[in-house]
Amino acid sequence: MLIEGRTGSWEIVVGLEVHAQVISNAKLFSGSSTAFGGEPNTQVSLVDAAMPGMLPVINEKCVEQAVRTGLGLNAQINLVSVFDRKNYFYADLPQGYQISQFQQPIVGEGVVTVDMPDGSVKEIGIERLHLEQDAGKSIHDQHPSQSYIDLNRSGVALMEIVSKPDMRSPDEAAAYLTKLRAIVRYLGTCDGNMAEGSMRADVNVSVRKPGDAFGTRCEIKNVNSIRFVKQAIEIEARRQIEIIEDGGSIDQETRLFDPNKGETRPMRSKEEAHDYRYFPDPDLLPLVLPESLVAEIKASLPELPDEKKARFIDHYGLRPYDAAVLVAEQEKAAFFEEVVGTADGKPKRDPKMCANYVTGDLFAALNKAGKEITESPISAEQLGGLIDLIADDTISGRIAKQVFEDMLESGKDAAIIVEEKGLKQVTDTGAIDAEIDKVITANQDKVEQYKGGKDKLFGFFVGQVMKATGGKANPAMVNEMLRKKLDG
Amino acid sequence: MSTFDKATVARMATLARLKLDDDELDHFAGELSQILTWVEQLSELDTDQVEPMTSGVAGEGLRWRADHVDDGNCQDKVLGNAPEAAQGFYCVPKVVE
Q1: Which CATH number applies to A429-487: 1.10.10.410, 2.60.130.10, 3.30.530.20, 3.10.20.600?
Q2: Chain B contacts of A79, Cβ < 8 Å?
Q3: Cβ neighbours of residue A260 under 8 Å, at least 6 residues apart?
Q4: What is the ipTM of this complex?
Q5: Is B49 on the interface with A (CB under 8 A)?
Q6: How many helices (H) and strands (E) does chain A have?
Q7: Fold exhibited by the domain B1-46
Q8: CA distance A82 to chain B (A)
Q9: Does the N-terminal or the C-terminal CB of chain A have fewer CB atoms within 10 Å?
């Protein structure tokens, strides 16, 4: 995507640093709980509170989760990695440093394939993934002159996933985040919940004339939704273009995005705060992974979104776009597969029709009701039942929409609704013939006009016959028989 | 020989949140320079073929713990040394961005 400025086109360059909270019971270096929403400072051990003499001991689950994520990102796993101290002072960081990984992260370069809305794909490079501790939480609105500190988050394991500056538009950044979230959810390594803060993004944005070297970047901190990431990139890029076109230059700085005002602004200058003086943590030996553990984790990986998408296209003949929509969440993909069903190793129902119903009518209805696929008022089996009735010509596609609405409301099976409401399609030629004759007799003037060349009136006759049969006549048969009568 | 000038010592003091007056800056600039000079003897050794060692303990690496919740739930203890606490929180002078 290029943005037009006064001096020509500009290209946006985006890289993302995503903090993803690791799913584990206990914290990265202590035995306290990671559960969300506990009473303040109850999930804090003396290690987390940084009492003198307390020593960190690494949680094996967090290590495994980082490796698992690295494998899911097609990345290099470093069998030896090192924990460093990142030094800074803040009230919610009791140690005075964050234990992180600087020069030797646990995961190196990888690649994520992202799905663009037009069905195309693009590869985004991963620079690294490292493990680090989360900080505590500061609450500023409880007291006029004090901040309140809760250390329940302090020491919870985070994975920082750093992309290469490979994205060129807000949409690509959104697609990358969406894919990354899908991957960690499939892997079960992070719940991907941006609203609760278990996944958040720092967005690096710069602009350049196409073909030029990278421009100076600004980092927008802690953006907590995909929509805001898109907005922040767009707004920040325009700000930078404006400055450069006015003859100014961009200062490399950290900024905040204010969605209410629709602007980014610099964070209060912390002067030397960025001098983190990293050094290897003397409390922790290098983290050494047995190759067997990496192999074991690799063998236990689930079918990931890209593999599933390829299978959906290959096995079910779906369009890439529909396949991408379905595999975005494991639960959606599973629902679709249940609707299709299998018989003798082959799809039991028409996969394309199933995909249309799932991604179209059902997703629209769920969206409207604000429900997840797991809360669908129509089960996969029930939806399959509806599709069976269309496939064997018991009801027309049009009546099916009506039955679908009814199913949403009542939760009843399609066959029961069709039976109760007498919605069975009329395929009796005699009955349809009689209705056609009535319509023709009642509309002689239109018949003349039609024969005189007003072809468009054909649709009118079809409509009248369908209306007369309460929509239950088989539309294909009505078409065919009308043609014979009117044209023959 | 490396030396610390006063400006560097002042910067380090700021990063460490230490308040030093002018005389102290001079004093520490001298002391720190001496320490650095002493440590610099190490650079006389040829370490080209030596892997960096970040720990004095030899062995296989870190010990791991199982993912069990077996600690925490000691709000009284962790708040015990806090100069001020309220409603289960530590209270500190207001820090707002």
Answers
A1: 1.10.10.410
A2: none
A3: none
A4: 0.87
A5: no
A6: 16, 19
A7: Histone, subunit A (1.10.20)
A8: 9
A9: C
